[in-house]
Amino acid sequence: MRNSRNMSLLLLAVVLLLAACGNNSNKSLVEGKTNVVTSFYPLYYLASEIGGDNVNVVNLIPAGVEPHDWTPKSQDLTIASKAQLFLYNGAGLEGWTNDFLKGLPKNSGLIAAEMSKGIELIHGNPEEDEEHANEEHDHDHDLDVDPHTWVSPKSAIIMAGNVKDSLIQADAAHKDQFEANYKELVGKLEALNDEFESELAAAPHKSIVVSHQAFGYLARDYGLNQIAITGLSPDAEPRAQDLLNVAKLVKSEGIKYIYFEELVSPDLAKTIANETDTKLLVLNPIEGLTPKQEKAGEDYVSLMNQNLQNLLTGLQE
What we know:
Helix 6 runs antiparallel to helix 7 and helix 7 runs parallel beside helix 12 (300-316). Helix content is 48%, strand content 13%. Strand 3, helix 4 and strand 4 form a beta-alpha-beta unit. The chain has a four-stranded parallel beta sheet, with helices on one face. Strands 8-7-9-10 form a four-stranded parallel beta sheet, sandwiched between helices. It has twelve helices and ten strands. By secondary structure, the protein is an alpha/beta fold. The chain has helices at 2-21, 41-51, 74-81, 97-102, 126-132, 153-170, 175-202, 216-222, 240-253, 267-276, 291-295, 300-316, and strands spanning 34-38, 55-59, 85-88, 111-114, 122-123, 145-146, 207-212, 225-230, 257-260, 279-282. It folds into two domains: 24-191, Rossmann fold, CATH 3.40.50.1980; 204-316, 3-Layer(aba) Sandwich (Rossmann fold), CATH 3.40.50.1980.
């Protein structure tokens, strides 16, 4: 009986250890390594791949949480103040960044770097911006700019270069390792880009109806037409007329699928699908992982491959 109990305790300990190892929301700093704090999952992925064993990457936003809805807490500021590098997307995604950095101790020595630097940014709909200019927002998003840069592999390649340069700035001693890891990662991203280019160029249809306006860079870089139910923020409420216009466009263009996201409510996508007798498919903006995806070991590349397959399904009919 005692041996059985000991074995059960041992198995429990192993399960807990494995769960901890797979959890990108672990917020522990590691002494003796370069500690890198990232604002959300795509940067966590890039920093982990390029940094390798020489860095400890801490992702601020836990699995299953939509970045548009998240703001840092005091413990997040404490963690960042003790790290060496803070990577954020910029382009208006993290409206809390300025206040966050101002809250750091003067002697923290933290290097903060914007990872969308060098990407040709997409500007939003001026009419929509003017319309919402006087509304109250929980986050200080720049409504003039689409912040979803990482959703295009072309942009992800640029961001990987920014991550590599920032890691070298924070830890020049491991420059060669960072360069080697970067080269390997960019090879994966370039292969992904090549597949998106060739497969989507051959697709007979080009219009995609999506939950929110998160796929502008993907559409621009691969010749697609994005039709968004809501604006740049997924929690925006569309007007009844907007829903009617989308439904009308779906019917007129013969679109067969409506794309929804896993981290936000699919209700609006379901409404359009029911109204137009279309089917639902996932198109993931990869703003974060779900707990299930995290447990399964999914990453940016595997999820973008799934996105491509779902896009091809929707664009073939």
